[in-house]
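hey m, so remember when u said the tokens were messed up on ur end? i reran from scratch. heres the input so u can diff it against urs
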Amino acid sequence: MFGLIKNKPLLNQASTDWLHEAFGWSLRNFNADYFHADTQLVLPTNEYFPGVVDSTEGMAKLIFEQIKQYAGVSHWPTLVIDQNQCPLMDRTPLLLQGAIRGGAEGSVVTDQSQPLSIPYNPQQINNPEGMIASFAHILAYYLGQMSQEPPPGGADHWPETTELLAIFMGFGLMFANSAFTFKGGCGSCYNPNAVRQAALSEYEATYALALFAVLKEIPNATVNRHLKKHLRGFYKKAVKEIQTSREGLSELMSIGREPAPQAETGL
């Protein structure tokens, strides 16, 4: 009888398969070595986002510069601007002269040497996790355009793909925590204009966060300490499900890593 009853999958099979495929796409196209060696889980704490400024614009710029550092794209030319002054997303492509991530200043330029427009929502200033996720999503939008391979699902899944890519860059906690905002309670407690519009559900984002953490060997306690309470149980189950799915995990772990050379036997 033991082991005959299997646990029900946390997500539907199509969602789980897509998340694995999208993570594999990210590893293949955006430097798996950098992911394993340099990418870190960014925590929503003052230690990760220090500093105090006296204006909304100043705070947005401060937060974004810190995000660029954690994402490994400090060398990208960018211009942070109020979304009310920049309503449409800049579609200027990046021209690569060096490393996409972790490069030196000036190694990436735009087609006309213009900085990439980074719009921010002033009303998100009191929703820092939402603002961080929104900024990371914009960086992922630009990064994703440099892929040499179409993402799984193609253009129809571009919003989800770029959110997954931002989680791949280390911002999974912010995406999971800001994917859903309770609208009940007193009217003054909820500001719809400050809410991030999510493409991945909070459970899909949490599952993607678990994929990140398993690949980076991050302890559950490190993540759960900063995750919304109602997501913690799901997260632990996701980690366990991913770890027991040996074939899928092994495939992701092998991307970008050369097999060790075989020792000569002398025979």
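this time it looks ok to me. The chain has one domain: 13-254. if urs says something different then somethings off w ur setup not the seq
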